[in-house]
Automatic annotation (TrEMBL):
Lineage: Bacteria, Pseudomonadati, Pseudomonadota, Gammaproteobacteria, Pseudomonadales
Record protein name field: Predicted flavoprotein
Entries under InterPro entries matching the protein: BaiN-like (IPR004792), BaiN-like_dom_sf (IPR023166), FAD/NAD-bd_sf (IPR036188), RsdA/BaiN/AoA(So)-like_dom (IPR055178), RsdA/BaiN/AoA(So)_Rossmann (IPR057661)
PANTHER family named among the record's database cross-references: OS12G0638800 PROTEIN
Cofactor: FAD
Sorted UniProt keywords: FAD, Flavoprotein
Length: 394
Protein backbone atom coordinates (compact mmCIF):
# COMPACT_ATOMS: atom_id res chain seq x y z
CA UNK A 1 0.00 0.00 0.00
CA UNK A 2 1.26 3.52 -0.78
CA UNK A 3 2.05 5.43 2.42
CA UNK A 4 -0.31 8.28 3.19
CA UNK A 5 1.74 11.41 3.66
CA UNK A 6 1.02 14.36 5.96
CA UNK A 7 2.95 17.38 7.17
CA UNK A 8 1.97 16.76 10.77
CA UNK A 9 0.70 13.64 12.50
CA UNK A 10 -0.60 13.95 16.05
CA UNK A 11 -1.05 10.82 18.17
CA UNK A 12 -3.93 11.41 20.61
CA UNK A 13 -7.26 13.13 19.85
CA UNK A 14 -7.62 14.56 23.35
CA UNK A 15 -7.54 18.14 24.58
CA UNK A 16 -3.92 18.91 23.65
CA UNK A 17 -3.89 16.96 20.37
CA UNK A 18 -7.05 18.58 18.96
CA UNK A 19 -5.85 22.05 19.93
CA UNK A 20 -2.52 21.41 18.22
CA UNK A 21 -4.29 20.03 15.12
CA UNK A 22 -6.48 23.10 14.63
CA UNK A 23 -3.56 25.47 15.21
CA UNK A 24 -1.27 23.69 12.73
CA UNK A 25 -4.13 23.27 10.23
CA UNK A 26 -4.84 27.01 10.20
CA UNK A 27 -1.18 27.51 9.24
CA UNK A 28 -1.85 25.53 6.09
CA UNK A 29 -0.22 22.31 7.29
CA UNK A 30 -1.77 18.99 6.21
CA UNK A 31 -2.65 17.51 9.58
CA UNK A 32 -3.83 14.08 10.68
CA UNK A 33 -4.82 13.24 14.26
CA UNK A 34 -4.97 9.53 15.09
CA UNK A 35 -6.41 7.89 18.18
CA UNK A 36 -6.92 4.26 19.12
CA UNK A 37 -10.21 5.05 20.85
CA UNK A 38 -13.61 4.90 19.17
CA UNK A 39 -14.37 8.53 20.16
CA UNK A 40 -12.21 11.66 20.44
CA UNK A 41 -11.84 13.64 23.67
CA UNK A 42 -13.33 11.13 26.09
CA UNK A 43 -11.76 12.88 29.07
CA UNK A 44 -13.16 16.22 27.95
CA UNK A 45 -16.61 14.64 27.98
CA UNK A 46 -16.27 13.24 31.50
CA UNK A 47 -14.51 16.29 32.93
CA UNK A 48 -15.95 18.69 35.47
CA UNK A 49 -18.82 16.33 36.26
CA UNK A 50 -19.95 16.51 32.61
CA UNK A 51 -19.63 20.31 32.43
CA UNK A 52 -15.87 20.60 31.72
CA UNK A 53 -14.00 23.05 33.91
CA UNK A 54 -12.27 24.24 30.76
CA UNK A 55 -9.95 26.87 32.24
CA UNK A 56 -9.18 28.94 35.29
CA UNK A 57 -8.99 32.71 34.95
CA UNK A 58 -6.49 32.84 37.82
CA UNK A 59 -4.16 30.22 36.36
CA UNK A 60 -0.47 31.02 36.82
CA UNK A 61 2.65 28.84 36.64
CA UNK A 62 2.37 28.55 40.44
CA UNK A 63 -0.62 26.26 39.87
CA UNK A 64 1.58 23.58 38.27
CA UNK A 65 3.84 20.85 39.63
CA UNK A 66 6.95 19.88 37.69
CA UNK A 67 10.52 18.87 38.33
CA UNK A 68 11.40 21.77 36.03
CA UNK A 69 8.95 24.42 37.23
CA UNK A 70 9.99 27.16 34.77
CA UNK A 71 9.23 25.06 31.68
CA UNK A 72 5.50 25.79 31.52
CA UNK A 73 5.80 29.58 31.93
CA UNK A 74 6.40 30.53 28.30
CA UNK A 75 3.52 28.55 26.76
CA UNK A 76 1.08 29.59 29.49
CA UNK A 77 2.03 33.23 29.00
CA UNK A 78 1.54 33.09 25.23
CA UNK A 79 -1.83 31.29 25.38
CA UNK A 80 -3.80 32.53 28.38
CA UNK A 81 -7.15 31.53 29.91
CA UNK A 82 -8.61 34.65 28.24
CA UNK A 83 -7.53 33.36 24.81
CA UNK A 84 -9.42 30.12 25.40
CA UNK A 85 -12.41 31.98 26.81
CA UNK A 86 -12.50 34.16 23.68
CA UNK A 87 -12.63 30.97 21.58
CA UNK A 88 -15.43 29.53 23.74
CA UNK A 89 -17.39 32.77 23.38
CA UNK A 90 -16.84 32.92 19.61
CA UNK A 91 -18.55 29.52 19.50
CA UNK A 92 -21.45 30.86 21.57
CA UNK A 93 -20.89 28.40 24.43
CA UNK A 94 -22.60 29.51 27.60
CA UNK A 95 -20.39 29.24 30.66
CA UNK A 96 -20.31 30.09 34.34
CA UNK A 97 -17.73 30.75 37.03
CA UNK A 98 -18.21 28.30 39.88
CA UNK A 99 -15.43 28.67 42.45
CA UNK A 100 -13.11 31.67 41.99
CA UNK A 101 -11.83 31.70 38.41
CA UNK A 102 -13.07 28.19 37.53
CA UNK A 103 -15.02 28.34 34.27
CA UNK A 104 -17.48 25.56 33.42
CA UNK A 105 -19.91 24.99 30.55
CA UNK A 106 -23.45 25.85 31.62
CA UNK A 107 -24.83 22.95 29.63
CA UNK A 108 -22.39 20.16 28.73
CA UNK A 109 -18.74 19.26 28.15
CA UNK A 110 -19.84 18.09 24.70
CA UNK A 111 -19.85 21.73 23.62
CA UNK A 112 -16.09 22.05 24.23
CA UNK A 113 -15.37 18.85 22.32
CA UNK A 114 -17.66 19.90 19.45
CA UNK A 115 -15.93 23.29 19.38
CA UNK A 116 -12.50 21.64 19.04
CA UNK A 117 -13.74 19.27 16.33
CA UNK A 118 -15.32 22.18 14.46
CA UNK A 119 -12.05 24.10 14.69
CA UNK A 120 -10.21 21.06 13.32
CA UNK A 121 -12.69 20.81 10.45
CA UNK A 122 -12.41 24.53 9.62
CA UNK A 123 -8.62 24.21 9.74
CA UNK A 124 -8.73 21.16 7.44
CA UNK A 125 -7.25 18.80 10.03
CA UNK A 126 -8.37 15.17 9.69
CA UNK A 127 -9.24 13.10 12.77
CA UNK A 128 -8.98 9.33 12.37
CA UNK A 129 -10.24 7.09 15.18
CA UNK A 130 -9.79 3.39 15.99
CA UNK A 131 -6.26 3.62 14.66
CA UNK A 132 -3.49 2.06 16.68
CA UNK A 133 0.20 2.56 16.05
CA UNK A 134 2.34 -0.55 15.75
CA UNK A 135 5.76 0.97 15.12
CA UNK A 136 7.33 4.37 14.61
CA UNK A 137 10.61 5.00 12.86
CA UNK A 138 12.27 8.34 12.36
CA UNK A 139 15.12 9.69 10.24
CA UNK A 140 16.32 13.06 8.95
CA UNK A 141 13.38 13.28 6.53
CA UNK A 142 10.60 12.63 9.02
CA UNK A 143 8.65 9.75 10.50
CA UNK A 144 7.03 6.57 9.29
CA UNK A 145 4.22 5.01 11.32
CA UNK A 146 2.95 1.48 10.79
CA UNK A 147 -0.65 1.65 11.95
CA UNK A 148 -3.83 -0.41 11.84
CA UNK A 149 -4.94 1.87 9.00
CA UNK A 150 -1.78 1.47 6.93
CA UNK A 151 1.57 3.20 6.64
CA UNK A 152 1.59 6.92 7.44
CA UNK A 153 4.45 9.35 6.95
CA UNK A 154 4.97 12.90 8.18
CA UNK A 155 7.53 15.64 8.64
CA UNK A 156 6.48 16.48 12.21
CA UNK A 157 5.22 14.08 14.82
CA UNK A 158 3.33 15.29 17.89
CA UNK A 159 2.81 13.00 20.86
CA UNK A 160 -0.37 13.93 22.74
CA UNK A 161 -1.29 10.53 24.24
CA UNK A 162 -2.00 11.82 27.75
CA UNK A 163 -1.09 10.01 30.96
CA UNK A 164 -2.07 6.82 32.74
CA UNK A 165 -5.16 7.99 34.58
CA UNK A 166 -8.43 6.16 33.90
CA UNK A 167 -7.26 3.27 31.72
CA UNK A 168 -10.90 2.40 30.96
CA UNK A 169 -11.06 5.69 29.00
CA UNK A 170 -8.20 4.60 26.73
CA UNK A 171 -5.24 5.88 28.76
CA UNK A 172 -1.96 4.09 28.02
CA UNK A 173 1.73 4.60 28.66
CA UNK A 174 2.35 4.77 24.90
CA UNK A 175 3.62 8.37 25.00
CA UNK A 176 6.28 7.38 27.53
CA UNK A 177 7.30 4.39 25.35
CA UNK A 178 7.77 6.70 22.35
CA UNK A 179 9.82 9.11 24.47
CA UNK A 180 12.10 6.25 25.57
CA UNK A 181 12.37 4.97 21.99
CA UNK A 182 13.84 8.34 21.00
CA UNK A 183 16.24 8.39 23.96
CA UNK A 184 14.32 10.75 26.23
CA UNK A 185 14.09 10.20 29.95
CA UNK A 186 10.73 9.79 31.62
CA UNK A 187 10.37 10.84 35.25
CA UNK A 188 8.57 8.39 37.56
CA UNK A 189 4.80 8.71 37.29
CA UNK A 190 2.14 8.57 40.00
CA UNK A 191 -1.56 9.26 40.32
CA UNK A 192 -2.56 12.84 41.15
CA UNK A 193 -5.85 14.59 42.01
CA UNK A 194 -7.03 11.28 43.40
CA UNK A 195 -9.14 10.23 46.43
CA UNK A 196 -7.46 8.71 49.49
CA UNK A 197 -8.22 5.26 50.87
CA UNK A 198 -8.21 4.66 54.64
CA UNK A 199 -7.10 1.86 56.94
CA UNK A 200 -10.04 -0.40 57.90
CA UNK A 201 -10.56 0.96 61.43
CA UNK A 202 -10.89 4.63 60.45
CA UNK A 203 -12.80 3.71 57.32
CA UNK A 204 -15.35 1.92 59.49
CA UNK A 205 -15.59 4.84 61.91
CA UNK A 206 -16.18 7.31 59.11
CA UNK A 207 -18.40 5.03 57.02
CA UNK A 208 -21.67 6.44 58.41
CA UNK A 209 -20.56 9.86 57.12
CA UNK A 210 -20.32 8.74 53.53
CA UNK A 211 -21.65 11.54 51.35
CA UNK A 212 -21.06 14.27 53.95
CA UNK A 213 -18.92 17.22 52.92
CA UNK A 214 -17.43 20.08 54.97
CA UNK A 215 -14.88 22.84 54.38
CA UNK A 216 -11.45 22.04 55.85
CA UNK A 217 -7.87 23.20 55.57
CA UNK A 218 -5.60 20.25 54.80
CA UNK A 219 -1.84 20.36 55.07
CA UNK A 220 0.87 17.97 53.84
CA UNK A 221 4.51 18.50 52.88
CA UNK A 222 4.28 22.28 53.35
CA UNK A 223 1.33 22.68 50.99
CA UNK A 224 -2.20 23.37 52.13
CA UNK A 225 -5.62 23.74 50.56
CA UNK A 226 -8.72 25.24 52.09
CA UNK A 227 -11.57 23.59 50.25
CA UNK A 228 -14.33 21.07 50.97
CA UNK A 229 -13.58 17.49 52.04
CA UNK A 230 -15.99 14.68 51.19
CA UNK A 231 -16.20 11.39 53.06
CA UNK A 232 -16.91 8.51 50.68
CA UNK A 233 -17.54 4.83 51.32
CA UNK A 234 -13.94 4.19 50.27
CA UNK A 235 -12.16 7.04 52.08
CA UNK A 236 -11.64 10.78 51.66
CA UNK A 237 -12.29 12.84 48.56
CA UNK A 238 -13.57 16.31 47.63
CA UNK A 239 -11.47 19.20 46.28
CA UNK A 240 -9.19 19.58 49.33
CA UNK A 241 -8.23 15.90 49.32
CA UNK A 242 -7.77 15.72 45.54
CA UNK A 243 -5.55 18.80 45.64
CA UNK A 244 -3.34 17.60 48.48
CA UNK A 245 -3.06 14.09 46.98
CA UNK A 246 -0.68 15.52 44.35
CA UNK A 247 1.74 16.46 47.15
CA UNK A 248 1.23 13.34 49.31
CA UNK A 249 3.66 10.39 49.28
CA UNK A 250 2.98 6.92 50.70
CA UNK A 251 3.48 6.95 54.47
CA UNK A 252 2.82 10.69 54.86
CA UNK A 253 0.16 11.97 57.24
CA UNK A 254 -2.41 14.65 56.47
CA UNK A 255 -3.06 17.42 58.98
CA UNK A 256 -6.64 18.57 58.75
CA UNK A 257 -8.05 21.68 60.35
CA UNK A 258 -11.72 20.77 60.66
CA UNK A 259 -12.85 24.31 61.51
CA UNK A 260 -10.56 26.62 59.56
CA UNK A 261 -12.90 29.59 59.86
CA UNK A 262 -12.94 29.56 63.66
CA UNK A 263 -10.59 30.10 66.62
CA UNK A 264 -11.38 26.77 68.26
CA UNK A 265 -9.49 27.10 71.54
CA UNK A 266 -10.78 30.61 72.28
CA UNK A 267 -14.33 29.59 71.30
CA UNK A 268 -14.26 26.62 73.69
CA UNK A 269 -12.92 28.75 76.56
CA UNK A 270 -15.59 31.37 75.91
CA UNK A 271 -18.30 28.73 75.69
CA UNK A 272 -17.22 27.10 78.95
CA UNK A 273 -17.62 30.51 80.62
CA UNK A 274 -20.88 31.62 78.99
CA UNK A 275 -22.69 28.24 78.74
CA UNK A 276 -20.87 25.72 80.93
CA UNK A 277 -23.44 22.99 80.20
CA UNK A 278 -22.59 22.99 76.46
CA UNK A 279 -20.75 20.03 75.00
CA UNK A 280 -18.04 19.84 72.34
CA UNK A 281 -20.54 17.97 70.16
CA UNK A 282 -22.89 20.97 70.35
CA UNK A 283 -20.05 23.34 69.51
CA UNK A 284 -19.10 21.21 66.51
CA UNK A 285 -22.70 21.07 65.35
CA UNK A 286 -22.71 24.86 65.04
CA UNK A 287 -19.98 24.63 62.41
CA UNK A 288 -20.24 21.21 60.76
CA UNK A 289 -23.03 19.07 59.33
CA UNK A 290 -24.77 17.50 62.34
CA UNK A 291 -23.90 13.90 61.45
CA UNK A 292 -20.29 14.85 60.95
CA UNK A 293 -20.11 16.75 64.22
CA UNK A 294 -21.45 13.79 66.18
CA UNK A 295 -19.16 11.26 64.47
CA UNK A 296 -16.09 13.43 64.97
CA UNK A 297 -17.03 13.86 68.62
CA UNK A 298 -17.52 10.12 69.09
CA UNK A 299 -14.27 9.36 67.30
CA UNK A 300 -12.37 11.40 69.86
CA UNK A 301 -14.52 10.31 72.80
CA UNK A 302 -15.47 13.79 74.00
CA UNK A 303 -18.24 13.52 76.57
CA UNK A 304 -19.92 15.64 79.22
CA UNK A 305 -20.38 19.39 79.58
CA UNK A 306 -17.49 21.81 79.03
CA UNK A 307 -17.53 22.84 82.69
CA UNK A 308 -15.88 19.48 83.42
CA UNK A 309 -12.95 20.25 81.09
CA UNK A 310 -9.64 21.59 82.44
CA UNK A 311 -7.75 24.21 80.39
CA UNK A 312 -5.37 21.49 79.23
CA UNK A 313 -8.35 19.34 78.07
CA UNK A 314 -9.65 22.26 76.02
CA UNK A 315 -6.21 22.90 74.53
CA UNK A 316 -5.94 19.24 73.61
CA UNK A 317 -9.42 19.13 72.04
CA UNK A 318 -8.64 22.30 70.06
CA UNK A 319 -5.36 20.82 68.83
CA UNK A 320 -7.15 17.64 67.78
CA UNK A 321 -9.66 19.66 65.80
CA UNK A 322 -7.30 22.04 64.08
CA UNK A 323 -4.61 19.43 63.46
CA UNK A 324 -6.55 16.20 63.02
CA UNK A 325 -3.83 13.82 61.84
CA UNK A 326 -4.77 11.06 59.45
CA UNK A 327 -2.45 8.60 57.76
CA UNK A 328 -4.16 7.44 54.54
CA UNK A 329 -3.69 3.81 53.56
CA UNK A 330 -3.06 4.94 49.99
CA UNK A 331 -4.91 6.45 47.05
CA UNK A 332 -7.38 4.99 44.60
CA UNK A 333 -4.58 5.13 42.03
CA UNK A 334 -4.86 5.59 38.27
CA UNK A 335 -8.29 3.96 38.27
CA UNK A 336 -9.91 7.23 39.40
CA UNK A 337 -7.08 9.79 39.29
CA UNK A 338 -7.75 12.92 37.27
CA UNK A 339 -4.12 13.28 36.26
CA UNK A 340 -0.72 11.60 36.10
CA UNK A 341 2.17 13.35 37.82
CA UNK A 342 5.65 13.01 36.31
CA UNK A 343 6.21 11.95 32.70
CA UNK A 344 8.48 13.10 29.90
CA UNK A 345 11.28 15.16 31.45
CA UNK A 346 10.80 18.71 30.15
CA UNK A 347 14.52 19.51 30.39
CA UNK A 348 14.84 17.79 27.02
CA UNK A 349 12.13 19.92 25.38
CA UNK A 350 11.94 23.48 24.04
CA UNK A 351 9.63 25.60 26.20
CA UNK A 352 8.89 27.68 23.09
CA UNK A 353 7.82 24.90 20.70
CA UNK A 354 7.43 21.79 22.93
CA UNK A 355 9.79 19.97 20.53
CA UNK A 356 12.68 17.74 21.59
CA UNK A 357 15.76 19.97 21.76
CA UNK A 358 17.92 17.81 19.51
CA UNK A 359 15.02 16.57 17.36
CA UNK A 360 12.98 19.68 16.49
CA UNK A 361 10.33 17.74 14.51
CA UNK A 362 9.20 15.57 17.46
CA UNK A 363 6.87 17.22 19.99
CA UNK A 364 5.43 16.18 23.38
CA UNK A 365 2.39 18.06 24.70
CA UNK A 366 -0.34 17.91 27.34
CA UNK A 367 -0.39 15.45 30.19
CA UNK A 368 2.31 13.13 28.83
CA UNK A 369 4.95 15.64 29.92
CA UNK A 370 5.99 16.39 33.49
CA UNK A 371 3.65 19.37 33.98
CA UNK A 372 0.62 18.80 36.21
CA UNK A 373 -1.89 21.40 37.30
CA UNK A 374 -3.85 21.87 40.47
CA UNK A 375 -7.54 21.04 40.42
CA UNK A 376 -9.76 23.72 38.89
CA UNK A 377 -9.25 24.00 35.12
CA UNK A 378 -5.45 24.33 35.15
CA UNK A 379 -4.82 20.97 33.46
CA UNK A 380 -6.92 21.85 30.45
CA UNK A 381 -5.24 25.26 30.30
CA UNK A 382 -1.90 23.42 30.01
CA UNK A 383 -3.35 21.16 27.29
CA UNK A 384 -4.57 24.21 25.30
CA UNK A 385 -1.37 26.22 25.81
CA UNK A 386 1.02 23.39 24.95
CA UNK A 387 -1.22 22.41 22.00
CA UNK A 388 -1.07 25.93 20.57
CA UNK A 389 2.69 26.27 21.19
CA UNK A 390 3.38 23.05 19.26
CA UNK A 391 0.75 23.73 16.58
CA UNK A 392 2.44 27.04 15.78
CA UNK A 393 5.70 25.26 15.05
CA UNK A 394 4.94 21.73 13.83
P1 LIG B 1 -6.10 13.14 26.98
O1 LIG B 1 -6.05 12.09 27.98
O2 LIG B 1 -7.16 14.17 27.01
O3 LIG B 1 -5.96 12.61 25.51
C1 LIG B 1 -5.08 11.58 25.16
C2 LIG B 1 -5.62 10.85 23.95
O4 LIG B 1 -4.63 9.94 23.52
C3 LIG B 1 -6.87 10.04 24.26
O5 LIG B 1 -7.87 10.36 23.33
C4 LIG B 1 -6.40 8.60 24.15
O6 LIG B 1 -7.41 7.73 23.64
C5 LIG B 1 -5.26 8.72 23.16
N1 LIG B 1 -4.29 7.64 23.29
C6 LIG B 1 -3.74 7.13 24.41
N2 LIG B 1 -2.92 6.10 24.10
C7 LIG B 1 -2.95 5.98 22.76
C8 LIG B 1 -2.33 5.08 21.85
N3 LIG B 1 -1.53 4.10 22.29
N4 LIG B 1 -2.60 5.23 20.54
C9 LIG B 1 -3.45 6.18 20.09
N5 LIG B 1 -4.07 7.04 20.89
C10 LIG B 1 -3.82 6.95 22.22
N6 LIG B 1 -8.88 18.96 33.84
C11 LIG B 1 -9.34 20.24 33.92
O7 LIG B 1 -8.60 21.18 33.65
N7 LIG B 1 -10.66 20.46 34.25
C12 LIG B 1 -11.53 19.45 34.55
O8 LIG B 1 -12.72 19.69 34.78
C13 LIG B 1 -11.02 18.12 34.55
N8 LIG B 1 -11.81 17.08 34.90
C14 LIG B 1 -11.33 15.79 34.81
C15 LIG B 1 -12.16 14.73 35.19
C16 LIG B 1 -11.70 13.44 35.09
C17 LIG B 1 -12.58 12.30 35.54
C18 LIG B 1 -10.40 13.19 34.56
C19 LIG B 1 -9.88 11.79 34.41
C20 LIG B 1 -9.57 14.24 34.21
C21 LIG B 1 -10.02 15.55 34.34
N9 LIG B 1 -9.20 16.63 34.03
C22 LIG B 1 -9.69 17.92 34.14
C23 LIG B 1 -7.82 16.43 33.50
C24 LIG B 1 -7.84 16.54 31.98
O9 LIG B 1 -8.83 15.68 31.47
C25 LIG B 1 -6.47 16.19 31.40
O10 LIG B 1 -5.50 16.98 32.01
C26 LIG B 1 -6.45 16.42 29.90
O11 LIG B 1 -7.44 15.66 29.27
C27 LIG B 1 -5.09 16.07 29.31
O12 LIG B 1 -5.16 16.29 27.93
P2 LIG B 1 -4.26 15.44 26.92
O13 LIG B 1 -4.72 15.82 25.56
O14 LIG B 1 -2.85 15.57 27.28
O15 LIG B 1 -4.65 13.92 27.20
Amino acid sequence: MIPQNYDVIIIGAGAAGLMCAATAGYRGRRVLVIDHANKPGKKILMSGGGRCNFTNLNSTPANFLSDNPHYCISALKRYTPQHFLDLVERHGIEHEEKAAGQLFCKDSSKEILNMLLTECEWAGAEVRLKTSVKTISGDDHGYQLQTSSGTLTCESLVIACGGLSIPTMGATGFGYDIARQFGLSVLPTRAGLVPFTLHPELKEQLAPLSGVSCPVDVNCNNEHFREPMLVTHRGLSGPSMLQISSFWRPGDSLNINMLPATTIEKDLHDLRKSRPQSTIAQYLAQHLPKRFAQALNDLHGWAGPLQGYKNSDIEQAARTLDQWTIKPAGTEGYRTAEVTLGGVDTRQLSSKTMAVLDRPDLYFIGEVVDVTGHLGGHNFQWAWASGVASGNDA
